[in-house]
UniProtKB/TrEMBL annotation:
<dbReference type="InterPro" id="IPR001867">
    <property type="entry name" value="OmpR/PhoB-type_DNA-bd"/>
</dbReference>
<dbReference type="InterPro" id="IPR011006">
    <property type="entry name" value="CheY-like_superfamily"/>
</dbReference>
<dbReference type="InterPro" id="IPR001789">
    <property type="entry name" value="Sig_transdc_resp-reg_receiver"/>
</dbReference>
<keyword id="KW-0238">DNA-binding</keyword>
<dbReference type="InterPro" id="IPR036388">
    <property type="entry name" value="WH-like_DNA-bd_sf"/>
</dbReference>
<dbReference type="Pfam" id="PF00486">
    <property type="entry name" value="Trans_reg_C"/>
</dbReference>
<keyword id="KW-0804">Transcription</keyword>
<keyword id="KW-0597">Phosphoprotein</keyword>
<feature type="modified residue" description="4-aspartylphosphate">
    <location>
        <position position="61"/>
    </location>
</feature>
<dbReference type="Pfam" id="PF00072">
    <property type="entry name" value="Response_reg"/>
</dbReference>
<dbReference type="GO" id="GO:0003677">
    <property type="term" value="F:DNA binding"/>
</dbReference>
<dbReference type="InterPro" id="IPR016032">
    <property type="entry name" value="Sig_transdc_resp-reg_C-effctor"/>
</dbReference>
<feature type="domain" description="Response regulatory">
    <location>
        <begin position="12"/>
        <end position="125"/>
    </location>
</feature>
<dbReference type="InterPro" id="IPR039420">
    <property type="entry name" value="WalR-like"/>
</dbReference>
<protein>
    <submittedName>
        <fullName>DNA-binding response OmpR family regulator</fullName>
    </submittedName>
</protein>
<keyword id="KW-0805">Transcription regulation</keyword>
<feature type="DNA-binding region" description="OmpR/PhoB-type">
    <location>
        <begin position="144"/>
        <end position="238"/>
    </location>
</feature>
């Protein structure tokens, strides 16, 4: 099954979803934003379509025939980094963390509202545009020096992160979240502020997204760098702080 709504010269969205009714609804809603949208119904077709279309963003179901969405995401990201919004039928944080670990930038649990789907897709597109503009500016002017906090080095110009001498590979969303936290070390940032600064959201219903991305960061950087403040938010604690990061679970 392949469904395409083509508008040459516009943003291109690839939808990989095997349930025809859901796929059609997503295609029509995203096309209403003026975007070119193509939908395919299995994992192998999704990988092939991503290579052919070079989409600006991918909306990807986890449960697919052929190969599952996690493997599709791995293969797509190995060829070309692209923002991925994963759809899952289960409200299981383990699945969400695995999805973030293979390169997805965000996830939504079915059933979901089309309004929220559009909003999250726009956020991913804006983040890509900002990164592209920053890369262009870095070629014509002196880039900002890397941010060094404790043993973590964050290079905004190259979007690279080191812990000690080891490079840590982060998704674009994870990078932006880490940079936001590390720019205000030892300062507690609320989930609502993080949603606004990193995701451009003002809807507090997305706070679980913040929690899942923080857990993904801890898995990659170590559990000691980001402290949980129950009922409030998170604080970045440099490794040389000397104070144990409590409740880093």
């Amino acid at each position: 099954m392949v469904t395409t709504v083509s508008r040459p010269g516009t943003t291109t969205v690839l939808v990989v979803e095997d349930e025809p009714a859901i796929a059609q609804a997503i295609v029509h809603r995203l096309a209403a934003e003026g975007w070119t949208v193509e939908s395919v119904g299995d994992g192998h077709a999704g990988v092939a379509a991503a290579a052919r279309l070079q989409p600006d963003v991918v909306v990807l179901d986890v449960m697919l025939p052929g190969i599952d969405g996690l493997e599709v995401c791995r293969q797509i990201q190995a060829e070309r980094p692209v923002p991925v919004l994963m759809l899952t039928a289960r409200d299981d944080e383990t699945d969400m963390l695995v999805g973030l670990g293979v390169g997805a930038d965000d996830y939504m649990t079915k059933p979901f509202s089309m309004r929220e789907l559009v909003a999250r897709t726009k956020v991913l597109l804006r983040r890509t545009e900002r990164a592209a503009r920053a890369a262009e500016l870095a070629t014509v002017q002196q880039p900002d020096p890397p941010l060094v906090v404790g043993d973590v080095t964050i290079d905004s110009a190259q979007r690279r992160v080191l812990r000690g001498t080891s490079e840590v590979h982060l998704t674009p969303t994870e990078f932006d979240l880490l940079l936001t936290l590390a720019s205000s070390p030892r300062t507690v940032l609320t989930r609502e502020r993080l949603l606004a600064d990193v995701w451009d959201w003002v809807d507090a219903s997305g706070t679980r997204t913040v929690d899942s991305h923080v857990k993904a960061l801890r898995r990659k950087l170590g559990p000691d760098l980001i402290r949980t403040v129950h009922g409030v938010g998170y604080a970045f604690e440099p490794a040389d702080d000397g104070t144990p990061a409590d409740d880093a679970s």
